[in-house]
Design brief:
Length: 274
């Protein structure tokens, strides 16, 4: 009896293995069938020009199979390219809300969502998304560039300066970052001048030159400020640097140099008259 039991044991194991494989195959076929049903149903809604129903149907697919994340991202991008940004946002937001997607997939969905927000004009939301992506190496460069674009549109020069300064600490050999930082200092200086904060503006222009000496605009603006303050010696020292840095800017400097020369001639005549 005991020997018969041992002889029957391999048969039982083999039977269990076969039944298990059959059960797994049935589950896979059932899952594939459900997925196909949702896919073709969503496709039908799209072809019938019912995109809202298509979005709802396609979003159900992710709970069935995590491999459909890329399909959802592609679908969101499809809506975005059609100009249907509200639907693109819904698709990408739905992906981010799911616990079952990987960190890599979530980062990709965030990148697409940030782009949706940016195109829709939701700059504050876009900023929040791209700030999150700064923490991830794979999308750092894109997020950084998007944030620079946002800050230039919104004229938030302090934020632009902070981001450029922090980025230089990470990639100190990136010359483009120094050019950007210098440019942002010039823009912030311009904003301060509009508030009649001349000393602070002058300080920022000098910082711009320290960051990037080829920033001709900073030399030009410093020359203008020095002329306005009747500091003619300093004005000449700034304006004379312009042709050394970039001859294309010489036409901008010539009227200021002529003003400097006329003031000096007048001052020289006044001195001799005394």
């Amino acid at each position: 009896m005991l020997e018969a039991l041992f002889l029957a044991l391999p048969v039982a194991v083999a039977y269990g293995w076969v039944m298990g494989r059959n059960s797994l195959r049935k589950a896979q076929r059932r899952e594939s069938s459900i997925l196909s049903k949702h896919y073709y149903k969503g496709l039908n809604f799209l072809l019938s020009d019912q995109p809202d129903k298509a979005v709802d149907t396609l979003m159900k697919m992710i709970s069935v199979n995590n491999d459909t994340v890329e399909t959802h991202i592609a679908m969101g991008n499809f809506f975005r390219h059609r100009g249907e940004l509200d639907r693109a946002i819904r698709v990408h937001q739905n992906l981010i809300s799911r616990d079952e997607i990987s960190n890599k997939q979530e980062a990709l969905a965030l990148l697409e969502l940030g782009t949706d927000y940016l195109l829709a004009g939701f700059l504050e939301r876009a900023e929040g998304v791209f700030l999150q992506l700064l923490e991830q190496t794979q999308h750092f460069d894109i997020a950084q560039q998007k944030l620079f674009n946002i800050y230039q549109v919104t004229k938030e020069w302090n934020k632009a300066i902070d981001l450029a300064s922090a980025s230089i600490q990470i990639t100190p050999n990136d010359k483009h970052l120094y050019i950007l930082l210098s440019h942002f200092y010039c823009e912030q200086s311009k904003a301060l001048l509009e508030e009649n904060k001349r000393d602070e503006a002058t300080s920022l222009l000098k910082k711009a030159i320290m960051i990037d000496g080829s920033q001709v605009r900073a030399w030009l603006d410093l020359g203008k400020l020095a002329l306005a303050s009747e500091n003619y010696k300093e004005a000449y020292s700034y304006l004379s640097e312009i042709p050394k840095r970039d001859l294309d800017w010489l036409s901008e400097a010539i009227p200021l140099l002529e003003e400097w020369a006329s003031k000096n001639r007048w001052l020289g005549s006044a001195g001799r008259g005394c």
